[in-house]
Amino acid sequence: MDIKRIIKHLSSSQAAMRRIFPRAALENIERTIAEVERTHAGQIRFVVEAALDTRPLLAGQSARERAIEVFSMLRIWDTEHNNGVLIYLLLADRDVEIVADRGVHAKLGNETWETVCRQMEAAFRQGKFEAGVIAGIRSVGGYLALHYPQTGSKANELPDAPVLL
């Protein structure tokens, strides 16, 4: 059991998350997702969670495991072309995880996502949360544009608004 991690999670709050991601930042992130999605046929969701609940925290749930749960919970897997991507930030751990649907993941793999995550985390260490998220969205969008180019009008299958848990 990692006591430091438990203390971080128990002391993280929704209020702190809202200070880091105020309404204006969330609106900018939403606009960026909408803008980037016009360049490809994929779907991007951004989710930030202040901290894990006590039970999963004490069970040692990782940010990756939680991201996979959130991916399923938000039905990001339920896109016509299996091209949904979740960018998940567990704020208490300052850990970014990207979970891609099987169609996207087969084309890009873990290394691509790890690179994007590390770049975002570097921005977060400098206190640049909004800029880090926007850069990550643009990076993911660039990869999606390569493998899922826009071929005309498309339905927006998933909401663009960030989710705060």
Layout of secondary structure:
Blueprint: H1 3-11, H2 14-20, H3 23-37, E1 43-49, H4 54-58, H5 63-73, E2 84-90, E3 95-100, H6 102-125, H7 129-147, E4 163-164
Structural account:
The chain has helices at residues 3-11, 14-20, 23-37, 54-58, 63-73, 102-125, 129-147, and strands at 43-49, 84-90, 95-100, 163-164. It is globular and about 50 Å long. Helix 3 packs parallel to helix 7 and helix 6 (102-125) runs antiparallel to helix 7 (129-147). A four-stranded mixed β-sheet has the order 3-2-1-4, sandwiched between helices. 55% of the residues lie in helices and 13% in strands. It contains seven helices and four strands; from the N terminus they run H-H-H-E-H-H-E-E-H-H-E. It has one domain: Diaminopimelate Epimerase, Chain A, domain 1, CATH 3.10.310.50. Strand 2 and strand 3 (95-100) form a beta hairpin. The protein is of the alpha/beta class and 165 residues long. The protein starts with a helix and ends with a strand. Residues 20-141 form the TPM domain. This is TPM domain-containing protein. InterPro entries: TPM_dom.
